[in-house]
Amino acid sequence: MEKVVCALWRDPGEPRDAFALRLRTSLPEALRACGASGIRINIADAAVDAAAGLVQRWQAPQQEAVVQYWLPCANALFRGAADQAVAAHAARFAAWLVAESTVIANTAHSPLPGERTWGWAQASFISFRADLPRAAALAHWHEQHTPIAIDTQANFEYVQNAIVCPLTPDAPVYDAFVEECFPPEAMTDPAAFFAALGDAGRLRANLKAMMDSCRAFLDVARNDIVPTSQFDFGQAS
Fold first, then answer.
1. Is 121 left (phi over 0), alpha (psi -120 to 50) or beta?
2. What CATH number has the domain bearing residue 57?
């Protein structure tokens, strides 16, 4: 099995609510018909409007949805039908082959198929620093940054997807896609985001540790961070 991550852009002429509804109701079935499994859709919908202050933007316009799914083989020869299904639901899409690593599985608020997962999901397309060899950036991400991200945040799901290669010719150049789930209050309260409710000193320390680690391996000007609602349609077989 191989995992594919797609970023989707909405036609500006289509209302945001209609775009979100169409993705949730018809895209999963269309992808299943192509042999996809483990389908998950993240949508920047009205439910996460309160998190607008957490958006980081490189792409203009920025992607408004993400679809993740698994195929027995993601080679172009066997992926065409899935590409067509995604393309039919967006004005533009870009796809990448990724290697998934589940750092924190969502056991606290397990998703129900087709329903909105409790809280919200931060969908992050990230780029490594150009002055670091990829191996060094990956080493920092996996060995230094990962425990910091666990210890300093209130994330109840944390999935890292290292990008193996782009699958579409116009895909933006990212190095990874990360999804983290947080409680609703973390959309607006930094203390809730950084696991420091009622403790200003811990908030300062956690924020500094996270920002220092991010700057050590990320090109922060080339990241697209999108608060989303998560809709899971089943795990990979």
1. beta
2. 3.30.70.100
